[in-house]
Design goal:
Mean pLDDT: 87
Structural class: mainly alpha
CATH architecture: Up-down Bundle
Number of domains: 1
Low-confidence stretches: none
Largest sheet: none
Number of strands: 0
Strand content: under 5%
CATH topology: F1FO ATP Synthase
Helix content: over 70%
Length: about 100
């Protein structure tokens, strides 16, 4: 059974190899770049918003439970929010590079 499966997969890879060698002109698929860039920016922004909400809620809960550690929690929150927001900014830069 394993030999038959192996030979079948080998035949599929051999017949499918010309598909991977096919070339397309950039003008043909250029309209998809703007659409997929919009989706990627929407997904990155949505996930950043969810992560920032979760981080803020956890920091507020932590400051409420231990007011003495509020300064260190606030610093960790700001650092975390900066790193989370950088994901959206990196995605925006990549989108702008790809679209232009």
């Amino acid at each position: 059974m394993n030999v038959k499966l192996f030979l079948l997969l080998l035949a599929l890879f051999l017949f499918a190899s010309p598909i991977f060698a096919a070339t397309t002109t950039p003008e043909v698929n250029h309209h998809w770049v703007a659409i997929t860039s919009g989706f990627s920016m929407a997904i990155a922004s949505g996930l950043c918003g969810l992560a920032q909400a979760k981080a803020t809620a956890a920091a507020a809960e932590g400051m409420g439970r231990n007011p003495g550690a509020a300064a260190s929690i606030r610093f960790a929150l700001i650092l975390g929010l900066v790193l989370i927001e950088s994901l959206a900014l990196y995605t925006l830069v990549i989108v702008l590079i790809q679209v232009t």
